[in-house]
Design a protein that fits this description.
- 38% of the residues lie in helices and 14% in strands.
- The radius of gyration is 25 Å and the shape is globular.
- It starts with 28 loop residues before the first helix and ends in a 9-residue tail after the last helix.
- The chain has 17 helices and 18 strands.
- It has a five-stranded antiparallel beta sheet, with no helix packed on it.
- α2 (36-63) runs parallel beside α5, α5 (121-145) runs antiparallel to α6 and α8 packs antiparallel against α13.
- It is an alpha+beta fold and 565 residues long.
- The chain has helices spanning 29-34, 36-63, 80-84, 92-114, 121-145, 180-197, 209-222, 232-247, 256-259, 288-293, 295-299, 314-321, 450-463, 467-481, 495-507, 513-519, 551-556, and strands at 69-71, 275-278, 310-312, 334-336, 348-357, 363-372, 374-375, 381-385, 388-391, 393-396, 401-406, 409-417, 421-422, 425-426, 428-430, 446-449, 523-524, 538-539.
- Mean pLDDT is 93; it is low at 1-26.
């Protein structure tokens, strides 16, 4: 009798199953059929457990190529290729992402093949979860390895569609990559099947009908074309599925004050009413290495743990400042590291970003400059740089905004306090991926939450030219973050910019930004300090907006597996 390919070694996180913990390799088809519900629980929980390692790389692929983050310096870690766009075909992190993805696809496919639907509502729920996980993974794989959907999806390549292994693996030949269109169709088919089968109101650590609907809302938004050339059919479908989630009544937006603590809640904590699905992590399985080498450990050092080498970018900070000094609730996830004097007091300072140039006067990048603030006799401010006095001119005193003329150019900066530097960069820690249950870098990566649904509606309505509905939904999110900050008007002239800015602000550090720019045919510009080649822009047409398939996977693949150019 055929054995199920078991792909995970531990399911300690999911402890509700009463099945004896026998070696997973002993789960034959006969055994599964003899005790379906208990066996399916164990095998499905194995799929959930695979998401933990998967979600780490998923975050880095989605967030690091974007413009929300900067790193203090170059790194030999393979994640640096996501930041630098110097793609390499032997990236070990991409191998983890690829392998974990297909393990989930394989195991969920085996469950789908063996267990028949309709036997009980409990079994149907589990089958629906398997379909959801498989569909979600196909979508995430395709957005990493396939070109944006608006760009020739009928011919551009997605990923191989391999829904389980054949009964016989003699002379095994697996298919080459399907097209982007075909892979999206597979994802949609699975997600819709999951939506139809799931019937339990499980908490956000598990897939549900609404989780499938939320993912379909995103998939159709990715298919809805660009603002300049929208596909209104898919925009309509994104609207439909966003509204299904909202109208389910199962989720509510957190209040402003509770949202500012969003990162501190586990996805199934009772105060957490916004998360639809997340990859739940718990302290008992979050190792000491996780606190340093996991996602949050790169963004901050908290409670003595983490490297704290990657910070909020100058661009992201400027977006936050647009709402006025610390008026945006999303400042709650940014933790500037200030210096303290012997009396444990901060030192007032002026900080600005200036142009770096080579000896011939050609700009090569950007850098921060900060100096302690001094006062003239008339009460105006100045700073001293290399023994030269520079007076500051008020731009907006209420917002601590001042300008300086430095090296022949006028720059606007902020009156603040002296900050700790890592190399030459002020340390603007990011805490959105840390502090779950006040445990330094414990974090449950968010897959879907209600806030995204309103932003999906705003974008989809704008692509349909319905700017009234677009503004209404955009302002639901904006006014939660910024009291009185809603827009009075949204038009064809400003909709794309304002909606994209709000998505960037709201969904930062949740692995959206690296895709949101390109799926709308836009250009990634990162004109701020850091070693990330800030003078190089990446248009959506660039070959580097998609990842290489790991060469190790191509070499081991039983069949042709076409590499990206």
């Amino acid at each position: 009798m055929k054995k199920i390919v078991i792909l995970i070694l531990s399911v300690t996180f999911f402890s509700s199953c009463e099945l004896d913990r026998e070696p997973f390799s002993s789960y034959t088809e006969d055994k599964i059929l003899a005790d379906k519900e208990a066996s399916v629980n164990v095998l499905l929980n194995g799929c959930y457990a695979q998401l933990k390692g998967w979600s780490d790389v998923m975050h880095r692929i989605g967030e690091y190529p974007g413009d929300n983050v900067m790193i203090r310096g170059t790194s030999t870690d393979s994640f640096y290729s996501f930041i630098s766009y110097q793609h390499i075909p032997n990236n070990d992190r991409l191998s983890v992402f690829w392998n974990n993805s297909y393990k989930i696809i394989s195991q969920s496919s085996d469950l789908i093949k063996i267990i028949k639907e309709g036997e009980s509502t409990q079994i149907d729920q589990k089958l629906g979860e398997a379909y959801y996980l498989r569909g979600m993974i196909y979508f995430y794989l395709t957005r990493a390895y396939g070109r944006p959907y608006y760009d020739a999806p009928e011919t551009n390549l997605g990923v191989p569609i391999v829904n389980g292994m054949p009964d016989s693996i003699d002379n095994l030949q697996l298919p080459d990559r399907a097209t982007v269109k075909a892979t999206y169709e597979q994802a949609i088919s699975d997600l819709k099947k999951g939506e139809a089968l799931m019937n339990e109101n499980r908490n956000a650590a598990y897939a549900t009908k609404e989780a499938a609907q939320a993912m379909l809302s995103r998939v159709y938004l990715y298919m809805s074309g660009t603002y300049q050339n929208p596909n209104q059919q898919y925009a309509d479908l994104s609207i439909e599925y966003s509204n299904k989630v909202i109208n389910s009544g199962r989720y509510t937006l957190l209040s402003r004050s509770e949202f500012m603590k969003y990162n501190t809640y586990a996805p199934d904590d009772s105060p957490q009413t916004e998360t639809i699905f997340a990859v739940k992590r718990v302290a008992s399985e979050f190792s000491g290495e996780d606190h340093f080498y996991g996602v949050g450990g790169m963004y901050a050092n908290i409670q003595g743990q983490g490297w704290g080498e990657m910070y909020a970018s100058g661009e992201y900070l400027d977006l936050l400042r647009k709402a006025g000094k610390k008026n945006d609730a999303r400042w709650a996830f940014i933790d500037p590291q200030y210096t303290m004097d012997a009396s444990n007091k901060k030192t007032e300072a002026f900080r600005f970003i200036y142009d770096l140039k080579d000896n011939s006067g050609v700009q090569t990048g950007y850098n921060y400059l900060q100096q302690p603030l001094e006062k003239n006799s008339d009460g105006s401010f100045f700073i001293t740089i290399a023994n030269v006095k520079y007076n500051l001119t008020v731009v907006d005193a209420a917002e601590n905004s001042y300008s300086i003329n430095y090296e022949g150019k006028t720059y606007v900066g902020e009156k603040d306090y002296m900050m700790l530097l890592n190399r030459v960069y002020p340390m603007f820690y990011v805490t959105k991926c840390s502090l779950q249950n006040n445990d330094s870098h414990l974090h449950s990566p968010i897959i879907s939450r209600l806030g995204e649904m309103y932003l999906n509606l705003a974008e989809a309505y704008a692509k349909k030219g319905d700017y009234q509905n677009a503004r209404t939904n955009l302002n639901i999110i904006r006014e939660r973050a910024i009291v009185g900050g809603g827009y009075s008007s949204l038009t064809t002239a400003n909709a794309a910019q304002l909606i994209d800015e709000e998505r960037q602000l709201e969904l930062a550090f949740e692995a959206h930004r690296g895709y949101d720019v390109y799926r709308n045919g836009q250009t990634m510009t990162r004109h701020y300090p850091g070693p990330h080649t800030p003078m190089v822009d990446y248009p959506a047409s660039s070959l580097r907006v998609v990842q290489y398939i790991p060469q190790s996977e191509i070499n081991a693949y039983p069949g042709t597996l076409t590499q990206n150019p």
